[in-house]
Amino acid sequence: MLLLLGPFVCWRSGLMLVGSLLLFAGFTYSDAQHIATATNPLPAAFSDLLPHFLVEPDDVYIVKNKPVTLTCRSTPATQIYFKCNGEWVHQDDHMIERTVDPATGLPVMQVKIDISRQQVEKIFGLEDFWCQCVAWSTSGTQKSQKAYVRIAYLRKNFEKEPLGKEVALDQEVILHCQPPEGIPPAEVEWLKNEDLIDPVSDTNYYITIDHSLIIKQARLADTANYTCVAKNIVARRKSSSATVIVYVNGGWSTWTGWSACSATCGRGWQKRSRSCTNPTPLNGGTFCEGQNVQKSACTTTCPVDGGWTEWSKWSACGADCTMWRSRECTQPVPGTGGKDCQGLDLQSQNCTSELCPQTASGPEDVALYVGIVAVVLCLTLLLIVVVLVYRRKKEGLDADVADSSILTTGFQPVGIKPAKPENSHLLTIQPDLTTTTTSYQGSLRSRHDATGKFPVSNGPLLDPLPNGQHTLHNGKLPTDPADFMTRLSTQSYFKSLPRDTANTSYGTFNFLGGRLTIPNTGISLLIPPEAIPRGKIYEIYLTVQRKEDVRLPLAGCQTLLSPIVSCGPPGVVLTRPVIISMDHCSDANLDNWAIKLKKQSYEGSWEDVLQVGEELPSDPYYCQLEAETCRVFTEQLGRFMLVGESLSMAAAKRLKLVLFAPVCCTTLEYSIRVYCMDDTQDVLKEVMQLEKQLGGRLIDEPQVLLFKDSYHNLRLSIHDMPRAHWRSKLLAGYQEIPFYHIWNGFQRSLHCTFTLERLSLNTCDLMCRLCVWQVEGEGQSFSIDFNVAKDSRPVDADLLGLDNSAPALAGPSAFQIPYLIRQKICSSLDAPCPHGADWRLLAQRLQLDRHLSFFASKASPTSVILDLWEAQHFHSGNLNQLAAVMAQIGKQEAMIFLVTDGEC
Questions:
Q1: CA-CA distance, 67 to 49, in Å (whole number)?
Q2: Angle (deg, nearest 10), helices 363-403 and 819-829
Q3: Quick one: which of 742, 782, 739, 787 has its CA closest to 763?
Q4: Can you tell me the distance from the alpha carbon of 201 to that of 217, in angstroms, rounded to the nearest whole number?
Q5: Cβ(845)–Cβ(885) under 8 Å?
Q6: CATH 2.60.40.10 matches 653-800
Q7: Residue 596 — very low, low, confident or very high, per pLDDT cuts 50/70/90?
Q8: b/e 303-316 (16+ beta carbons within 10 angstroms → b)
Q9: Parallel/antiparallel/unpaired status of strands 165-168 and 242-247
Q10: Rounded to an integer, what distance in angstroms lies between the CA atom of residue 611 and that of residue 96?
Q11: pLDDT tens column, 283-318
Q12: What secondary structure, in 3-state letters, does 374-391 show?
């Protein structure tokens, strides 16, 4: 402890006298007097100089337990001592060294002291530990700067550590870092995959004053693990690593050029494509939005073959007994690579006229003329004989047809007759069915409902039974359904067929044809007359596959648009195409779709057999796409389905939205199930059967939603619920069904459940609004208002429109048009008519003229047109309308006849 008892007295002679007793850690007054008198006086030239410091003590840090040394050097000085925290340091703790400056001759004094950790810790928390030098000379004293002594440390935990990020290419990245607390403050550096980042060598990196790392423009090479490192004289700390992933969103390449038109003549299609390679998606970047293929209609100018004009009139007979005529290749003129006219454009022939020189006729000329006349007479007689024979054969053929039993073989006439229609002036034909009938060996399912159908004939062989039904005796009993399915499942190709008969129809058919229908699914198979060769009997089935039983390799934007339909057995010989009818759920706009018919091979792989709109008449398959139904003409039975690939984001599928709820509710919770399914009857039937098992009831009319190929999900939400009585248990504001779950068409019974809770069991009335919409697309809403305790509305009576027709109909009872009249229509319209009053006009009036090339490729175009009419109008067919079309064509001899009550 320093006690200053009196002021110092400085003598001008250069001696420093101590005027009072100085007790300085053991210093006595006599010691101070001895110091002052024993010090050599300074030279007279420097007696007025104050001491100045050559070295002053600096701030230092104590690391761990190592003491630190403070140094002080001054000249001219007679004494130097340290004072720490206001107290003089004991004389024994000083290490003093005296020297003389060789340049000036002045005395130089250097003093050092050691400071330990314990000394600093004694005042830790009160104030900073500091020390300074005090130097004396004969002229006075000087104080050095204060030097602070601190205990160095660096804590382990960072105040803030960097966090990993996923950023797009060229985006700015900021990684924050706050180092641990420490003395002296820690310096910060950054590591990239354990390598030191140098912002000087790589200017894309920048370290801010608050130690954050900035990547100015993220590059692919910047994908790495980044670590913040804090260090001072005590320790070096590393933060946890932050992973930065630089992703690249995909970008479209430029469109390729349009391909050549698919049609060499007339309307066709051309395509162009692009790829998601500019750039290619990397590190989880998004795939390009939009279509990779575009399709556009194109028209190619057809080649025009040259055509001859009419021959000109013969010229006058020339002197050489020759006359001439000519024609030109101008109707039309050959163009666009068409062929030139074949043949001569100039003809000549001998003539006889008064202008020719007269010559005497010899015996040879007379004989020649007589021979020519004889030949002409013979040819005339022969032609007359041929005409007479032909007429007799035709009359005999008509009699055979009228007397044949073809109309009574393989079907059951019905005793129910329709009311006599208006316009009964049409041609009435009463076929004679009293002749002996023939029967074939095969089983036929009876037709129980024939309302609206015409009984073709009535005769003694078909007298009604006592119960009002008719029967046809066959050589084979009807096949048992279970036995039929068992026999099918034993064949390897049919292992995947459903075992339940609800999804399968079957029957036995011969050349008269027939029809198979799977009730309430919109799926049917029409077997036209003469499709099965005469003498053959086939047992044919029709079934709809469950989607989970079939695995399809759909790629890109492809989606299933129809049920998967199987008919068979495959490999049977057909002489004409049969027609498969099934629903589809596309918007039927071929500008937005590329729709393909796929068929499964025997090996199980799926093959594209045609593209709708690009069918060739020579192909064994053809497709008629209607608004909601597809008709497939095929000469080969097998497994089929429609697959669509969207050509633009305007392509849309039709979804049917159906709401169900429990029939009764005895608890506080109440659930509403919203089904979002393809708008086809088979899917609706499946959902209705499922809800029947669950005890559900329909709570609103189904609605249709167009779901576009825009990659956006389907959202469902419930609104306007009376909160005083009900509340939703859904935590989020809405539910979502992912886009691809709906688009691929393979998910079964996609639905969302809204669980509601009523606050009291006495609350029974539920009123709310349920919305279903596609993000950035169209939507539908349901206004719900009913009583949860009792509701009498039917579940499925009106929704399915129950199909009461028999699953299998064989023979003429399966068709609207009687077989005999069908033959007469075909024979009348198949032959080309110069005024167009033939099968082409029939197709035009029935709005089927888009398929003229397909009809023309068949042996009987009229027969194929009537097959399609039968497939379209099985339930709603109106023979009066068809008769009116025939009357417009002008074919009175081929009008459809109506069998009235009096004529049967």
A1: 35
A2: 150
A3: 787
A4: 16
A5: yes
A6: no
A7: very high
A8: eebbeeeeeeeeee
A9: parallel
A10: 107
A11: 888 888 888 888 888 877 788 888 999 888 888 887
A12: HHHHHHHHHHHHHHHHHH
Q: What is the mean pLDDT of residues 409-433?
A: 36
Q: How many residues does the chain have?
A: 904
Please give the residue that has the higher pLDDT: either 209 or 267.
Answer: 209
Task: Supply φ then ψ for residue 396, to 5 degrees.
Answer: -65, -40
Residue 176: name the closest of 193, 164, 192, 194 by CA.
164
**What superfamily in CATH does domain 154-247 come from?**
Immunoglobulins (2.60.40.10)
Count Cβ atoms within 10 A of the Cβ of residue 150 and give its class: 0-12 exposed, 13-18 middle, 19 or more buried: middle
84: three-class secondary structure by DSSP: strand
* CA-based radius of gyration for the chain: 54
- Number of Cβ atoms within 10 Å of the Cβ of 840: 19
In 3D space, the residue among 582, 590, 593, 591 whose CA is nearest the CA of residue 558 turns out to be 593
Select the CATH number that applies to the domain covering 502-648 from these four: 3.30.70.120, 2.60.220.30, 2.60.40.2550, 3.30.930.10: 2.60.220.30
Residue 328, by phi and psi: left (phi above 0), alpha (psi -120 to 50) or beta? beta
Q: What's the whole-number average pLDDT of the chain? A: 77
**Residue 743: CB partners within 8 Å, gap ≥ 6?**
557, 559, 653, 707, 709
Cα separation of 581 and 867, whole Å? 12
- Contacts of 123 by beta carbon, 8 Å cutoff, 6+ apart: 85, 129
Residue in the block written with tokens 């648009």: 561
The whole-angstrom separation of Cα 657 and Cα 680 is 12
The DSSP element (H or E) to which 295 belongs, if any, is strand 293-300
Q: Which residue has the higher pLDDT, 43 or 84?
A: 84
Q: Which CATH code of 2.170.130.10, 1.10.533.10, 3.90.1150.10, 3.30.230.80 fits the domain covering 815-903? A: 1.10.533.10
Residue 356 pLDDT class (50, 70, 90 cuts)? low
- DSSP-assigned letter for residue 238: E
Lowest mean pLDDT among 108-122, 607-621, 672-686, 785-799: 785-799
Place of tokens 């099968």: 839
User: 3-state DSSP call for residue 529?
Assistant: coil
- In terms of pLDDT, which residue wins out, 829 or 5? 829
Distance CA 569, CA 488 (A): 9
Q: Of 479-488, 536-545, 609-618, which range is least confident?
A: 479-488
Give the Cβ contact number of residue 750 at 10 Å.
18
Identify the architecture of domain 52-151 in CATH.
Sandwich (2.60)
Dihedral angle sign, alpha carbons of residues 457, 461, 465, 470: negative
